[in-house]
Amino acid sequence: MSAQGLYTRRRITNAMAMTFGAAATALGLFFLVWILWLTLVNGISALHGSLFTKITAYGPQGGLSNAIVGSLMMDLIALLICTPIGVMAGMWLAEYARLTKLGTVIRFLNDILLSAPSIVLGLFVYMIIVLPMSNMTHGAVSFSGFAGGVALALIGLPVIVRTTDEMLQLVPNTLREATLSLGVPQWKLTMQILLRAASSGIVTGVLLALARLAGETAPLLFTAFGNNFMTVHPLDKVASVPVAIYQYTNDPDPALHAIAWAGALVITLFVLALSLLTRLFFSRNKVSYG
Amino acid sequence: MQVTRTKPFVRDSEMRSHADARHDRIFRGVLKFCALLVLAALLGAALSTLWGGREVLFGQGLHFLTNDAWNPVEDDYGALSPIFGTLVTSLIAIVLAVPVSFGVAMFLTEIAPTWMRGPVGTAIELLAGIPSIIYGMWGLFVFVPFMSSIEPALSDTLGKLPLVGKLFQGPPLGLGLLTAGIVLAVMILPFITSVMREVFQTVPIRLKESAYALGSTRWEVLWDIVLPYTRSAVIGGIILGLGRALGETMAVTFVLGNSYNITSSLLKPGTSISSSIANEFNEAVGVHRSALIALGFLLFVVTFIVLLIARLMLHQLAKREGK
Asked: What CATH superfamily classification does B58-320 receive?
């Protein structure tokens, strides 16, 4: 082949590859816009005041108020559980076990928990909380908002562990040396100096964990179950927006589909706004969640 | 006089340092306990599902894996069709998502002007932020009708091909393995893309610039320099996406059709491990429930192994970087 022919062929290959890259990106963006646009259009046309004031027991004439309250309650329970545990586990990884074998293993397993199938975590909570509670109370308490909160906490935990660990590792060592040389014990150093230095990053982690767990459906199916009435009792069956969407989507009634779309819009806006704002405000603390 | 003065002082400081040491030990213990909870969560998930599925797992043994029946009336349960559905849909997702992710990562690291990289990258990552139930709704209400409108055309063109033709013959229901695979592909696209994009950026500029100086095109730099340098991490990212696809529930439950069969056609409905559990668990009792928990155990073990491999491969590149 002549040198000119080879050159032309290389340029054509290059142009094809570049076109493919741009087309692939356009395809990805197309799906994003498609899904978001549909959620927006269908959601807004179904968005009425009754969505926030009426409970699901009214069916097609009702709203999702009990599901919204239930979701907020379980998200709160989940954060109350996974934030302290996650932050402390992250502290241990960064401050006490940075280079130890056990630390490496736990950091590694935490990354696996980050992408573990959420439905199995739901089964896990069913086995360790729902079933024993039901056996102990002879069926009086079985599925509960508390169990749902624990299941969601398992989704958020690895996010917080990872962020805390990485954020503490970013704190310069001179700060540790300066503090320790003043005779400050290590627990005080960790709690009062390092935690404060890494606080904005850790808050990012908590918000990202919330964004992640708020949209989860699968772990709630066999833990919180669902409820057509308003309740904030953590030992009752509790409704949640994702599970309500799941049930309404499975129903043949188009009026329920409309409510499901409205719920989908609410939850998508909540989750995306949370993750987008977190990114914008704390972009200097970027951590990857591959 | 001096002795009586300093002695309490010394004792005081000694006591303080003892107290500090004790507090440190307690603090350290509490932190370690929390870190071990991560371990406990994974171990607990495996053991509790093993225990819950013991009736079927130990009662049937390996027969559970090769049995293609799923009959609640006769209490005969086999894992073969859910496993088949899970593997086929995940495989379709990977086959479709990998080239597209590679294209997007290529665009974001090599082609796009700098001002475009941030916003477009964030937009692609937003795909990962959309709750999976929304993918399910979109899949059922919008994508399934769309697929059922193009499936006759698929059967007429791809279905006529030798060898692969059989995959594309079937009723144009819209629901089915192919549709579920495509929805999964969209879902895992941002995960694979973000890993690829990140590792592409770790390639030393010097390597790339040397290649450019020798007259390489952008494509040649990417294919012959960047990709070989990041190979293990790229494969790790792909396997990570596979792990996501295997365990995904909500996006596939609506569009799979929930029917227990093993077919050669991708257009026919099927089921997957996760969608079987989601659909049937709350109505299941006795052996049926045990079989579903056993399926959960299988899913957990398989995804654990897949994710373990993925993380190990990602780790290799990080090690080379000296992290």
From this structure: MetI-like (1.10.3720.10)
Q: Which residue in A227, A56, A222 sits closest to A150, CA to CA? A: A222
Q: Measured in Å, how far apart are chain A's first and last C-alpha atoms?
A: 44
User: Which of A164, A212, A143 has the alpha carbon at shortest distance from B38?
Assistant: A164
Regions of chain B with pLDDT less than 50: 1-3, 323
- Chain B residues whose CB is inside 8 A of the A288 CB are 194, 198
Pair A166, A111: CB distance under 8 Å: no
List C-alpha distances in Å: B11 to A114, B2, B17, B269.
Answer: 49, 14, 10, 78
A116, A225, A242 member nearest B133 (Cβ): A242
Residue A288 has a pLDDT of 44
Beta-carbon count within 10 A of A272 CB: 18
Measured between alpha carbons, how far is residue B58 from residues B50, B51, B75, B290, B294 in Å?
10, 10, 15, 11, 10
Q: By the 8 A CB rule, do B239 and B310 touch?
A: yes
Q: How far is A136 from chain B (nearest CA, A)?
A: 17
Give the model's pLDDT for residue B162: 78
Per-residue pLDDT, B262 = 87
Please tell me which of the candidates B134, B307, B311 has its beta carbon nearest to residue A264: B134
Angstroms from A123 CA to nearest CA on chain B:
7
The answer to whether A6 and B97 have CB atoms below 8 angstroms apart is no
Question: Residue B70 pairs with which residues in a beta bridge?
Answer: B77
Q: Which of A71, A82, A83, A81 is nearest to A232 (CA)?
A: A71
Of residues B90, B101, B88, the one with CA closest to residue B234: B101
> Distance (Å, rounded) from C-alpha A273 to C-alpha A278?
8
Q: For A129, name the nearest residue in chain B, comparing CA atoms only.
A: B48
A276 CB-contact burial (10 Å; exposed 0-12 / middle 13-18 / buried 19+): middle
Which residue in B12, B25, B42 has the most chain A C-beta atoms within 10 A of its own C-beta, making it the best mutation to test that interface?
A: B42
Cβ distance A46 to A261 under 8 Å?
A: yes
**A35 Cβ contact list (under 8 Å, min separation 6):** B127, B130, B134, B135, B138, B186
Res A65: pLDDT:
93
Q: Smallest Cβ distance to B39: which of A14, A109, A216? A: A109
Tell me, what's the pLDDT at A48?
85
Please indicate whether, in this complex, the C-beta atoms of B133 and A115 are within 8 angstroms of each other: no
The residue among A249, A145, A281 whose CA lies nearest residue B131 is: A249
Helix (H) or strand (E) holding B70: strand B70-71
Amino acid at A285: N
| pLDDT tens, position by position, B223-277 | 999 999 998 899 999 999 999 999 999 989 999 988 888 888 888 899 999 999 9
This model of the complex carries an ipTM of 0.91
CA distances, A196 to each of A98, B85, B129, B242 (Å): 19, 49, 28, 38
What pLDDT shows up at residue B7?
56
- Give mean pLDDT in consecutive 10-residue pieces for chain A, a chain of 290 residues: 85 94 95 95 90 89 92 96 96 93 93 93 95 90 93 96 93 93 91 91 92 93 90 91 94 92 94 86 53
